[in-house]
From TrEMBL:
<protein>
    <submittedName>
        <fullName>VOC family protein</fullName>
    </submittedName>
</protein>
<dbReference type="InterPro" id="IPR037523">
    <property type="entry name" value="VOC_core"/>
</dbReference>
<dbReference type="InterPro" id="IPR004360">
    <property type="entry name" value="Glyas_Fos-R_dOase_dom"/>
</dbReference>
<dbReference type="InterPro" id="IPR029068">
    <property type="entry name" value="Glyas_Bleomycin-R_OHBP_Dase"/>
</dbReference>
<feature type="domain" description="VOC">
    <location>
        <begin position="1"/>
        <end position="121"/>
    </location>
</feature>
<dbReference type="Pfam" id="PF00903">
    <property type="entry name" value="Glyoxalase"/>
</dbReference>
Amino acid sequence: MIGYVTLGTNDLAKAAPFYDALTAELGVPRMMEFDGFIAWGKEGGGAGIGLTKPFDGNAATVGNGVMVALAAKDKEQVQRLYDIALANGGACEGPPGPRGDTFYAAYFRDLDGNKLNAFVMG
């Protein structure tokens, strides 16, 4: 069971609005905030997401093969999340559409290059 996922950023002030917009669509607020770190989630809810400047002081880098998947409630929300990501500076990694018979997803990157997707099953 995953409790939360943390992604690195080199500019928290610039990156935070991207996640504020995505999580607003999902109905998930900021739940924790410190210098250099913000977390979005709900107590008792699903896995949260954190955004942080690396603790070791080195530059944040993208993990090759790493992706965070955001569970959407329907195909229309997948589309909205994809549109929100691109409108807030994200980059397309694959537009919304079916991937197989029961998986519908859109893929995008945040401002630091971290890969995410929005998906729905069924």
